[in-house]
Specification:
313 residues, Aminopeptidase, six-stranded mixed sheet, 9 helices, 19% strand, disordered N terminus
């Protein structure tokens, strides 16, 4: 009934206004739901240990790929063989790349490792130190943020290029032997420009690693390698966190951590590590979902969504 009484002038005015409203709505920053991210964290832990080569690891890889397919996102598993630091012989490792937004061009990379450590070598009970980790914070937390981002991308495709990097083989090494860690990121840092690699058609503007971001008492400082080698990207991220009032991000120097960002720094790509390394349950059997918080995941997710969807620096 209302449409029948619109005069021509009003109709023309509406035709001019509606596209402007559509553009404003499309550029809005979507919400990140910490409870939904927490559900992804629990679902990963329910798969059991995600040690490279294990059924749990393969199940999580397939979950990521199937979820991307169901959401209409491009996804690829990039598999290779590597020496197994935790056992004799070699093991198949598979990184997963999920892409959103327009193809090619400048791209923001967000990464997390989806494998878990084969043993709880720092457990206070010596009898339990050979047990595999559940890996709720150390592994599942960063992946949970990325899995919920995939849902957000499907509902509101970003207008910029974004690639989510799920790394395998991050956490099987022996203490004091850094090159036994981060095997998936070492391989991808060497091969991302290879023909056929889904990352090769774009140009990375930087990589943000999410690791151990679910701690109930989350406090993420400025990791030392990030400060030293990617100060501009680090400042941009922490300035945005401050503008959003996200108290989990503490603009103070933190320890140097050999993590999945380091191989990319060595390859000349700006990369930072968002990690709360002050986690007493690290590499213990106590690293379970009850030690994690939806509120912590939400703070990290809010920051990632804002960096992706808001154009201003």
């Amino acid at each position: 009934m209302f449409s029948r009484i619109l005069n021509t002038g009003l109709m023309v005015g509406l035709l001019l206004v509606v596209p402007q409203l559509s553009r404003a709505q499309s550029s809005a920053v979507p919400e990140f739901d910490g409870q939904q991210a927490m559900s992804w964290l629990v679902q990963q832990c329910d798969l059991g240990p995600r040690i490279p080569g294990s059924p749990g690891n393969r199940a999580l890889r397939e979950l990521i790929l199937d979820q991307a397919a169901s959401l209409g996102l491009s996804a690829s598993a990039l598999c290779f063989s590597a020496g197994n630091p935790a056992a004799e012989g070699e093991v198949e490792l598979c990184n997963v790349v999920v892409s959103a937004g327009p193809p090619g061009g400048d791209r923001l990379w967000l990464g997390a490792h989806f494998d878990t450590r084969p043993f709880s070598d720092l457990d206070p009970d010596p009898a339990r130190r050979q047990e595999p980790l559940v890996g709720a914070n150390d592994g599942a937390s960063g992946v949970a943020v990325l899995l919920h981002l995939m849902e957000i991308f499907s509902a509101q495709p970003p207008t910029r290029g974004v690639d989510l990097l799920f790394f395998d083989g991050e956490d099987s090494g022996a203490a004091g032997k850094p090159l036994e860690f981060c095997l998936g990121s070492q391989h991808l840092a060497r091969t991302w420009q290879d023909f056929g690699n889904p990352l090769s058609t774009g140009t990375p503007e930087g990589l943000i690693i999410l690791d151990m971001v679910g701690d109930k008492d989350l406090a993420i400082p400025q990791e030392e390698y990030s400060r030293r080698y990617s100060p501009d990207l680090l400042a941009r991220v922490f300035d945005r966190a401050a503008a959003l009032g996200l108290s989990a991000f503490v603009a103070e120097p933190g320890p140097a951590v050999y993590d999945d960002h380091v191989p990319f720094l060595q390859a000349g790509i700006p990369a930072i590590d968002l990690i709360d390394f002050d986690y007493p349950l690290w590499h213990t059997t106590g690293d379970v979902p009850a030690a994690c918080s939806p509120a912590s995941l939400e703070q990290v997710g809010i920051l990632m969504v804002d960096l992706i969807y808001r154009s201003e620096p």
